[in-house]
Amino acid sequence: MSKRLLTCSLAVVGMAASLSMALAEGAPQQVQSGTYKVEPGHTQVVFSLLHFGFTNYSGLFSGASGTLALDSVHPAASKLTISLPVSSVQTTSDRLTDELKGADWLDAAKYPTATFVSTQVAPDGKGGASITGNFTLHGITRPLTLQARYVGSGVNPMDKAYTVGFQATGVIKRSEFGVKTYVPMVGDEVTLAIAGAFEKQN
What we know:
This protein has 2 helices and 10 strands, in the order H-E-E-E-E-E-H-E-E-E-E-E. By secondary structure, the chain is α+β, with helices and mostly antiparallel strands. The protein has one domain (about 5-200): Lipocalin, CATH 2.40.128.
């Protein structure tokens, strides 16, 4: 290994170690309060549903935008707003991805955005919270509760932005949002797994 390559490798390892330490040392009550913006490059929404009773099939949405008003002293006062471009849907099948964007499924042309706006945050005192809000998909708005868990916070050594991250899960019935194609052969119940990264703005 060349000296230059070794130096670069050590630098990358050092940055990764610094980030790991920052995240490991963080605790919910130590997170900086303020207004945060979604960091779309590391925010993902994975969906999963039963496919003909054979497999749990998953796909992904990306390109999220939105804000988090975080109050670490009084977490229940925090507020979250997230938007997703429906056309960002991806699966391992190009054909299926195109079908999901079409009128028989998500109809991305007519309903281009999915949104979640929180109405209540109920902390569990252990770094987690139930976040209840209004979820809009396919032109229909219904209540949704997400079970969120704090992952970590600190200064990202790559872009120097103070960042906080959460993991969240939730379940919807797609038929309740007017997406009924192939129900019940293709599962009605859809599990959401969300990785959310937020960068502090002030």
